[in-house]
């Protein structure tokens, strides 16, 4: 049966059993080209039933999940509606054309920017909803002509929308969303390491000295982002206006830019420069004469090349005459810091969208397999242009507390590669604990880009903080690059299977209420469950906590290797050198122990961390350009046997690769050690400490009696922290 059903000025396309396109165009000229949001509507043909002129309905379309009714005439809530059967439930929900999506049920998407945010901001809609359906309105999207590489507004007012009805099959919905709107590209492996970024007028020597110190401290920095002071600022004549936009090197700071970038490359760093391109190319720029020639500008009057990516001549000059020569000097990619608002009217496309599209497309053409930009979110479809720059946040605990949730919900519009200003950008005050907890979240977020303002006291160098914070930050920065094999495997799964690196709990546990309640908790890749700490420590325990839901099963703390029985909600207290990260028994985590080596090449050595206690299996995906290798690791708990099988048809893996097995386990003695550590840190009476410890390690210990003892304590944090350890002990008994 034909998937497209046309009735006069109305067309319905059954894309999948859970996705129907709905169009109304009185001219009858229905749109088959791509839009800014939608690239392809070609799916495998679904099963459905079409009924015409029955029981007063002009058309009925019936699939396993949707029963759509059309009663003729212009679309309205009376003429077009659908019953949605939620999978696994007898419940039927009704959708009416024109009704607003249910804001209470919607699981939210993301926002254009966190600029100047101090905590929570409103989020746009996501395509996931607890009521099982969502209507995506594409009516105002611009049309994309891939032959001319141009965007144009629709010639007349139309209805063009997509009714998603996937129930709680959120991952399936996201996978089909990607097929509809385009895959998320693979991001370069180097982007998964640590980024250093700061709004500060570095000189070449000052920057090299800083990177040399990072190396001496054995802290890997893989991406160097040079903020706007790389270009002329202070010496730009007033007549040209704001110096925020610039394309000419500041030679007083960088006398030999090519040598500076070459030095960074030799030291294993990719290089990005910040651009605020809104003021175009003016007569003082080094490239002005070439730009003027390309565009036919009047140089005698110093006619500027106004920033206009709708103008093909400007696009040609912008890339050919301005950016490409700088890329030949070594610039690897660009940070596009667009802050100038949206389109001037509905006949023009948002400049941010155009900037992201053309800039990423140019990067793809020139840097095959290494394409990248850093830019703000421009709306549905922006996932095709990674990576997202979330903006200039305020340094505060409120900002940190919002960022995990903000990152998680972005998956609901397919936007999986957010890069935050880790540590916050501006205002705030000096707080080593906040900086450390923020960095820990950064290590377990899509991109770990440290950033700060041009205040001389706000730099994020670990040695700016007291020793315990410094040690923790260094350890986590090293961990980030150790985890790159694991992260890059998730990168591949995002690209190929549509599975986000940072995945909401409800994707995996849609029937569990806790999966919706614990908004800052998420899966990080296939194996890890992360519950970041976003509050300061309390004075009694000297620890901070997050509230964590552990689903059914047995979970192991990634750092301490202590076991937690699942199917519980618990406060997880951690000292500043740790954070709550859990894996299941049987998990296999692949890391690179040589964390200082370049990320340009696949590692010659891997460590396979086995969290014993159950059988386990993990597939590691590695890639070089278009070539893929897959290694399947298997742990047999009964036989205590670790095996792996390599599938490397194009021989991209190092021939000398070594894989070291590290078996992680713990015992009751480790639980005792954890209790002793917490009591040692606690600011309470020595006699009380000893009583609590001796009762815990006593041969007569009973869980219930010990909890009763803890309930006599006045301090809630102390009770909860020690109760957590008592709960851990239950996993080692019986």
UniProtKB/TrEMBL annotation:
The keyword Hydrolase applies. Gene3D superfamilies: Glycosidases, Golgi alpha-mannosidase II. Keywords: Glycosidase, Hydrolase. Transmembrane segments: none annotated. One of its GO terms (molecular function) is hydrolase activity, hydrolyzing O-glycosyl compounds. GO terms for biological process: carbohydrate metabolic process. Its EC number is 3.2.1.-. Residues 498-589 form the Glycosyl hydrolase family 31 C-terminal domain. SUPFAM superfamilies: (Trans)glycosidases, Glycosyl hydrolase domain. The keyword Hydrolase applies. Residues 184-487 form the Glycoside hydrolase family 31 TIM barrel domain. Belongs to the glycosyl hydrolase 31 family. This is Alpha-xylosidase. The lineage of its organism: Bacteria, Bacillati, Bacillota, Bacilli, Lactobacillales.
């Amino acid at each position: 049966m034909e998937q497209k059903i046309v009735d006069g000025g109305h067309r319905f396309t059954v894309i999948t059993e859970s996705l129907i396109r709905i169009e109304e165009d009185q001219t009858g000229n229905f749109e088959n080209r791509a839009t800014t949001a939608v690239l392809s509507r070609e799916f495998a043909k679904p099963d459905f039933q079409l009924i015409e002129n029955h029981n007063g309905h002009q058309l009925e379309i019936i699939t396993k999940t949707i029963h759509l009714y059309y009663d003729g005439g212009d679309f309205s809530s009376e003429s077009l509606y659908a019953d949605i059967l939620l999978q696994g439930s007898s419940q039927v929900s009704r959708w009416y054309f024109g009704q607003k999506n249910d804001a209470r049920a919607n699981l939210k998407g993301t926002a254009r920017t966190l600029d100047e945010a101090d905590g929570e901001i409103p989020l746009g809609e996501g395509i996931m909803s607890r009521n099982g359906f969502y209507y995506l309105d594409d009516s105002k999207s611009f049309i994309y002509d891939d032959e001319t590489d141009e965007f144009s507004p629709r010639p007349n007012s139309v209805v063009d929308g997509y009714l998603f009805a996937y129930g709680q099959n959120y991952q399936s919905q996201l996978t089909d969303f990607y097929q509809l709107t385009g895959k998320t590209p693979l991001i370069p492996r180097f982007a998964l390491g640590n980024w250093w970024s700061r709004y500060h007028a570095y000189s070449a020597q000052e920057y090299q000295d800083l990177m040399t110190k990072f190396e001496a401290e054995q802290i890997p920095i893989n991406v160097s982002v040079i903020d706007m002071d790389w270009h002329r600022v202070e010496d730009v004549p007033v007549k040209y206006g704001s110096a925020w936009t610039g394309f000419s090197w500041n030679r007083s700071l960088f006398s030999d830019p090519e040598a500076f970038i070459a030095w960074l490359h030799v030291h294993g760093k990719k290089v990005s420069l910040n651009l605020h391109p809104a003021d175009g190319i003016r007569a003082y720029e080094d490239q002005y004469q070439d730009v003027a020639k390309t565009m036919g500008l009047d140089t005698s009057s110093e006619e500027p090349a106004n920033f206009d990516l709708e103008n093909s001549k400007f696009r040609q000059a912008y890339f050919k005459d301005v950016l490409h020569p700088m890329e030949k000097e070594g610039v690897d990619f660009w940070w596009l810091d667009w802050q100038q608002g949206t389109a001037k009217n509905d006949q023009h496309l948002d400049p941010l969208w155009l900037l992201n599209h053309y800039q990423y497309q140019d990067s793809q053409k020139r840097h095959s397999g290494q394409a990248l930009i850093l830019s703000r979110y421009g709306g549905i479809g922006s996932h095709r242009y990674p990576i997202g720059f979330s903006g200039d946040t305020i340094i505060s605990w409120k900002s940190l507390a919002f960022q995990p949730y903000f990152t998680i919900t972005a998956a609901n519009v397919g936007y999986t590669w957010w890069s935050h200003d880790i540590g916050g950008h501006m205002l705030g005050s000096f707080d080593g604990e906040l900086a450390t907890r923020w960095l820990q979240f950064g290590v377990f977020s899509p991109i770990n880009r440290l950033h700060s303002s041009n205040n001389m006291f706000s730099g994020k160098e670990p040695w700016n903080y007291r020793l315990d914070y410094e040690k923790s930050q260094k350890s986590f920065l090293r961990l980030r690059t150790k985890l790159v094999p694991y992260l890059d495997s998730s990168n591949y799964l995002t690209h190929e299977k549509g599975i986000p690196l940072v995945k909401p709990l409800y994707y995996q546990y849609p029937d569990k209420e806790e999966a919706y309640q614990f908004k800052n908790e998420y899966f990080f890749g296939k194996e890890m469950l992360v519950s970041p700490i976003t509050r300061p420590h309390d004075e009694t325990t000297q620890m901070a906590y997050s509230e964590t839901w552990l689903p059914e099963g047995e979970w192991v703390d990634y750092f301490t290797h202590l076991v937690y029985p699942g199917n519980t909600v618990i406060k997880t207290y951690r000292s500043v050198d740790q954070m709550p990260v859990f894996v299941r028994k049987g998990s296999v985590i692949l890391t690179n122990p040589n964390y200082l080596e370049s990320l340009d090449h696949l590692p010659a050595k891997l460590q396979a961390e086995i969290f014993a206690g159950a059988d386990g299996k993990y597939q590691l995906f590695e890639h070089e350009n278009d070539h893929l290798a897959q290694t399947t690791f298997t742990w047999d708990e009964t036989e205590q046997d670790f095996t792996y099988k390599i599938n490397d048809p194009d021989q991209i893996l190092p021939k000398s690769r070594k894989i070291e097995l590290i078996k992680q386990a713990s015992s009751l003695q480790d639980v005792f050690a954890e209790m002793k550590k917490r009591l040692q840190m606690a600011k309470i009476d020595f006699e009380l400490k000893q009583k609590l410890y001796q009762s815990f390690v006593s041969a007569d210990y009973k869980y219930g009696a010990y909890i009763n003892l803890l309930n006599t304590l006045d301090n809630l944090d102390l009770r909860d922290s020690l109760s957590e350890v008592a709960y851990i002990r239950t996993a080692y008994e019986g």
